[in-house]
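For the sake of clarity, the format in which proteins appear in this thesis is described at this point. Each number in the token line that follows is a code from a learned vocabulary of backbone shapes. One such record is shown here in full, so that the layout can be seen directly:
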Amino acid sequence: MEGDRDGLTIRLLAPDDLARLVKMDRAFTGRNRRAWFEGKLKRSLEEADVRISLGADRDGFLVGALLGSLHYGEFGQPEPAAVLDTILVDQDFLHRGVGRALLDQLVKNLAAFGIERLRTEVAWNEQTLIGFMRKAGFVPVPRLVLELDVRAAAHREGEDVDEEPAPKAR
């Protein structure tokens, strides 16, 4: 599945990509998330029915990557969907089409598998990433992501809370 786009080779990720993934991520986040990437890469390479995570090489050097997975009928959605967990581009290669080349190849691959939807989450304050996603064709969806602060909820034990959620409006 290798493809070449302006000297860029798009390929499936491999186990030996771990160190570069961690280094690229650390340059943006300031954190070492090696354990997260180890687990994500292992699941992507060894446990996935279909491998969709991709790397972008220039002259044999990993300059970008995306990690994702396929989900079948999750969150009440009957159709399969792909989820884009991470997209990384080496800071020295920003604004050179690396992210777009990765995303274009992923879309081609997903279309070949008959997958109709690609979803991701972006922090509201990541304006550059939101702009990239918008230009790539991503749009907000009419879904609400909910989060529970478990520590705070644990301290509220016994408070007056409805036992059952209200029925869905139709």
